[in-house]
Amino acid sequence: MMNGETACLLVRMIADFYAARAADFSATRQGSWAGWQQLAAQVQPLFEEAARMGCPVAVADVACGNGRFGKFLRQKFPQSPLRYTGWDGNEALLREAAANMPEGAALHRADVLAPLLGEKRDPWWAEADRGAYQLVASSGFLHHIPGAENRARFLGQLLDLAQPGGTVALSLWRFADHGPLREKALRSTETALAAVPALAGAGGLEPGDYLLGWGGDGQAAQDPDVADAASQGADAAAPLFRYCHSFSDEEARALVASVKSRACLTASFFADGRTGALNQYLLLVRED
């Protein structure tokens, strides 16, 4: 289990990164991921049925960022009404999400990370419409949650949002599977730990944990949206770092097993990035 002090430091590091770099980050995340096409194929019957019935598909997007997943669904299934609800902790990204989504989309500013660590009451969760969504998604976020127990807790929260029979779709970043990317991530982590001595002494990172650079001389692992991640934020005066976890096969299996009494895995596939395998996608159907 991750040291609580370490986890809190990592969460604050992530919040500081997005507060400083929301615009730069969002600029690299304007298009859709290739894996979303495969995801869409899995849920296509849901949207086709909605189009026939004239009923909106209820979609929850947790840590929605600039809303590009909702925009993708709207463009992919233009004949299907969409009732979209998104949560994110960054106000600038939510403003962009509002521009990406049609009138009527519900967007909420919410700190999704800190409450997982018990830092404060979770207002987004208290006010969320549980059991109301046919599709619950979280793309490019799970790697920001420190600690396997917290990641499993988050998956349980996603399932709580889904209707019985609803689908939960999430992506797991797998950058450390690829040698050159892993080496970049290791160098970046070494630099970050030297720059943040409090983190180095707080109990340490877990296997698969990295601190990725953005700007200045910080190194960065390639991500699915950036062709040359080492150039991310090159105009910055000083490097910024964000905590990211690279998942393994064993961790993906353990995550699914953590909700085996509640959900069934219906699809698992790899996509995205130059390698076509930087993300692993998991689709689960709620059964309880």
From TrEMBL:
* Methyltransferase type domain ranges (all copies): 61-167
Record-linked Pfam families:
Methyltransf_12
For this protein, the record's InterPro entries field holds: Methyltransf_12, SAM-dependent_MTases_sf
Gene Ontology MF annotations: methyltransferase activity
Q: Which UniProt keywords apply?
A: Methyltransferase, Transferase
The answer on whether this UniProt entry bears the keyword Methyltransferase reads: yes
- Tagged with keyword Methyltransferase: yes
Cross-referenced SUPFAM superfamilies, in alphabetical order?
A: S-adenosyl-L-methionine-dependent methyltransferases
Annotated GO biological process = methylation
- What name does the UniProt record give this protein? SAM-dependent methyltransferase
